[in-house]
Amino acid sequence: MKQFIYLSLLVFVVASTTFNAITFSNSAPPTGYSNAPGEANCTSCHGGSGLVTSGTLTNALTLTSSVPINQINPNQTCTLSLSFTHPTSTKFGFQLVALPNGAVSSTASIGTFTSIGAETEVNTSGNREYASHSATGTAAPSSSTTWDIEWTAPTVYTGGVTFYAVVNASNNNGSSSGDEIIAKTFSATVLPVKWLSFSAKSQPNQNVLTWRTASETNNHFYTIQQSIDAQKWTSIGTVQGRGTVLSTSSYSFTHNNPLPITHYRIQQTDFDGRTSFSNTITVKQYTDAVTQIRYNATQQLIIVDNNAMFGVYNARGVQVAQSQYQVSTLNWPSGLYYVVTESKEVHKLFIF
């Protein structure tokens, strides 16, 4: 099914108070220094306090995305912004590589980087692609900088992704001494299914649910779930998925004899057992209302004609009363309520 990739962004930042003048000041760093499995990091060239994995400098390193970091779709392009601030340094550099979770030294990088400004460039070495600063992308006169780089998720992929980054902060003294090397991790998610829509139509004694996907990766099946309060869910049926497909797919499911007000969501399950969820929708059961419902605001009473049994539900679908003929609304919160008769007629009622 369409896997929205789970990006565990593992960013190893190397902040160095001094850049090697030849390697980092005049060009992008050499590839293979991202601290990823099988690689070195900038400490091999820049001496200092060693690798820092917590504290002020680690907190000063951030990675953000133009797309919600836990909702990246397969083949979707997002802009990643790597930002770093240092108390004194005014010259920075970085290197970034993306690997699948559990990578080893021989694992290839995943996804595709694209440079979107003069401050960054993309280079390849062996089976790995790296994003890094360019020769003109090191200046940080205010001791702070942000590099923007596009990253496109793989078209077909199941699992997590880890970004390894190295950032150098130079004091411009012409040597490589006094460097600070910083490591940090960031997490994101690439979803298994790219949802286009999920809706429902109420008909007599049934609700018809429909949904469409733009693509699916390793998708085994869908489980339709219902709830009266959008908190506790029960499964009411399954629909087979289409495995891996890059075209639009349409599905439907009919729920017979539904509750008067029902919340629905869809759980998607991969062949490997991983799951994800759609958004939640709420459906009020169709009715040709014939029973008369009256509200006496003075006496604060809901009155149902024909001495019929009825229930009252709040806007969240939680039942707040059940009675015959009438019920008191004394001390009820103002808001929207639904009065549902035994024949499943649904009446909307506002109490002020």
Describe it.
- The chain has helices at residues 21-25, 56-59; strands at residues 6-13, 48-52, 61-65, 77-85, 91-100, 112-115, 120-125, 128-133, 144-152, 160-170, 179-187, 193-203, 206-227, 234-245, 249-256, 261-270, 275-277, 281-284, 293-296, 301-304, 309-314, 319-324, 326-328, 335-341, 346-351.
- With 352 residues, it is mostly beta strands.
- The longest helix has 5 residues, at 21-25.
- The model is unreliable at 1-26 (pLDDT under 50).
How far apart lie the N and C ends? 47 Å
Approximate shape: elongated
Along the chain, the helix and strand elements come as: EHEHEEEEEEEEEEEEEEEEEEEEEEE
CATH topological fold name of the largest domain? Immunoglobulin-like
Number of strands: 25
**Do you know the CATH architecture of the largest domain?**
Sandwich
- The parts where pLDDT drops under 50 for at least 5 residues are 1-26
The structural domain count equals: 3
Which CATH class of the largest domain is shown? Mainly Beta
- Mean pLDDT across every amino acid position: 84
Radius of gyration: 29 Å
- Report the β-strand fraction as a percent range: over 45%
Structural class by SSE content: mainly beta
Helix content: under 10%
Biggest sheet, spatial arrangement of strands: 2-11-1-10-5-8-7
Number of helices: 2
User: CATH homologous superfamily of the largest domain, by name?
Assistant: Reeler domain
For the largest beta-sheet, the strand count, sense and barrel status come to: 7 strands, mixed
